[in-house]
Amino acid sequence: MKIKLLCILLIIPALGFSQSFQVNLQGQKQTAMAGAGTGLALDEAAVFFNPGAVSFLRQNGVQAGAHGILLKTAFREKGSQLTQYNKNNVPTPVAVYAVFGAPNKRLRFGIGVYTPFGGAMHWDEDWTGKYSVTALDLHAIYIQPTLSLKLTDNIGLGAGLVYALGKVDLKRALPYTNNGIQTTAQLKGNAKDFGWNAGIFIKTVSGVSVGVTHRSQVTARLEDGDANFFNVAASVAPSLPKKFSATLPLPATSTIGFGFYPSEKTTIAFDVNWVWWHTYKDLTFHYDNGTSTPSARNYHDAATFRLGVQNITSSFLTLRAGLGYALSPVKEGYVTPEVPDADRLLLSAGVGLNPSERFSIDFSFLYENIKSRTEQNIETGLNGTFKTVAYIPGVALSYKF
Q1: In the chain, what are the domains?
Q2: Terminus of the chain with fewer CB atoms < 10 Å: N or C?
Q3: What's the predicted TM-score (pTM) here?
C-alpha cells in the first residue's frame, strides 16, 4: 500500500499551467481591448505590455487595479448523463504600476507588480474526478522594476528585471479508505525565481506604431514543499514522504503588436502572442525519501490573436471593445480537471471615466468561451467532456502627476 500511495501522488499534475492559468489581465484598458496593447503607449501598464513604450507616455502616474475571475466548468463522464460543476471560487489577480521621470527627458523609470499566472479550481470532494484533483489554488506574483529609453523621437527601448513569487496548494483523493474515511493527499509549497521583460516601441513615418516584446521564462522552483496525507493507515504513515520539490517552467512569451490611429480620438490595436509552451515537457516530483518520478506533459507552443479598439467619446468618457482567439497548448490525452483547457474565444468591453485631468477610473469586462473538449487522460484514465466559460469584471484607479 505504501508504494501504491506514493506512485499515485507522484502522477498529480500539480502545476499544469496552460491558457487557463496564464492570466492576461495586466491592465484594465488593455483587458477591455481583448488584451491588446503591445504596440501602444497607452498608460502605466506599458511596464508590462511594452517597456519600450514607457518613455513615450505623456505623463507620470500610478495605477492600481484588480479583476474578479468567475470560472464555470462542467464535466460529464463518458457514458453518464450526470453533469458535474466546479464550486464557485473567485480569485482576484491584481496589477499595480508607477511611472516616474521627466516626460520631456529620454529616460523614464517604472515599476509593476502583477499576476501573470494564477487561478482556483475547486470540485466537490466526492466528484467523479476526485482521484485527479479536488482543489487547486495557485498564483504567481511578478515584481518588475523597469528602465525605458527614448533613443529617438520615434524609437524607444525598455527592459525590466522580474522577481517572481509563486504559491500552490493542491488536494486530491486517493483510492483508499481508513476505517471508512477517504484517504486524501495535499501538495503545498512556494516558489521563487528571476526573469526579465524587454521591448522596443517604434512610431513609423506612416503613423502606425509597432511594438515587439519578449518576456522570459521563469522557472518556478518549489523547494521544501509539504506533502501531506490524511486518513492514512497508521502502519503506512511513518514511511510516507513529508517534503517534496519540483521545477516547473512558466513559459516565455513573444509578442508583436500594432497601433493604428484612423482619427485623433480612435485607436485600434492588434497583438499576436506566441507562448513557448514546448518547454513544459514533464513534471517531476522529488521526495525526501529519495524517490522521484517524471510525468509527461509534452505541451506545444500556442498563439493568441487580439484585436481592440478605443474611442475617446468626450473628455469624460472613453469606450473600448475587443475580440480575441487563443489556441490551447494542451495535446490530446493531457487534459486534466485543474486545466480543462481548449481553444477559446475572447470578447471584451470597457469604459474609462475621467472626472478630472489627473484622476481616472477604468472598468473592463472579459468573457472567455472555452470550447468543449472530450478527452481521456493518459495517466489517470479520467474520460469525459469538459466545457468552461469565464466571466471577468475589473476596475482600476489611476492618478497622473
Answers
A1: 2-400 (2.40.160.60)
A2: C
A3: 0.88
